[in-house]
Design a protein that fits this description.
single chain; about 140 residues; mainly alpha; globular
Length: about 140
């Protein structure tokens, strides 16, 4: 597998995050009146806005990785860190049982962040993303 293929597969994983988030936004809008009648710990506006914000932010990661933009690795790492922080804050504030699955969640988040941090610091990946910056537009 080439480095370009690996980066594109990674972009597709971020596309899944974008898709799920944007579906959350769209479904919240479609079911707004029903959600308003439920005793939820958060209002539908929160569900819609977080779906929209994280969906659009994830699309930015997809675009940067797919188009081999020089800023993409830093943006992807920043996005992933912020998204994980959001998950932890959301659980701490709104979840009925915030400690359920806490060790699994912590382990996977630490593993993913360490993996991304090490991968994006690799010389081959830095070269891959810097090559595109030096290609003149056609």
């Amino acid at each position: 597998m080439t480095l370009k293929t690996i980066i594109r597969v990674t972009a597709l994983l971020y596309l899944l995050v974008a898709g799920f988030s944007l579906v959350r936004f769209a479904r919240t809008l479609a079911q707004w009146s029903f959600l308003d009648t439920l005793p939820l710990s958060v209002p539908p506006l929160y569900l819609a806005l977080t779906g929209l914000v994280w969906g659009l932010a994830a699309l930015g990661v997809v675009y940067g990785l797919w188009m081999q933009k020089g800023w993409a690795p830093r943006y992807a790492l920043g996005f992933t860190t912020a998204y994980f922080a959001y998950i932890w804050l959301d659980r701490a504030i709104f979840a009925a049982n915030p400690l359920s699955n806490v060790w699994f969640l912590a382990g996977t988040h630490v593993f993913i962040l360490l993996f991304l941090w090490i991968a994006y610091r690799d010389r081959r990946i830095q070269t891959f993303f810097s090559e595109r910056a030096h290609i003149p537009p056609q």
